[in-house]
Amino acid sequence: MLAGAVASSLARATDTPLWPALRDGVAEAVDPVRPGVPRLRLEKGRRALVAQHAVRREPARAAFTAEWRDSLHEVLRARPEAAIGLRRALAEVSPSLPRWSGQDGVVPPSVLRGSVKLAQASPYR
Description:
Elements: H1 2-13, H2 19-30, H3 36-50, H4 54-78, H5 82-93, H6 109-113
Helix pairs in contact: 1-2, 1-4, 1-5, 2-3, 2-5, 3-4
């Protein structure tokens, strides 16, 4: 749930003034030693998304969300402590994020409080 909430928030923030703070917070949580690596990847994805014509932007936003949800799941499996930084980044921007139709646009409090359980990675992958 945390990975999905962060990925969705990233996708909603791509074309807002909230983007730099969320991007930097997520990059720092993903790789505290070399945050520039995920920051560049996030920025490349954002540029590709906002360059899409309006008709194609929502499918591109969904693809961006899915890609980052999967990536963040991997990060959280490898480094569960990354959840602290991801929750912090979400808490800083969540109330200000734009809302999509059909969504309340607010990150559930359980995600911000840390009551979400992480699945154990399978050793057979």
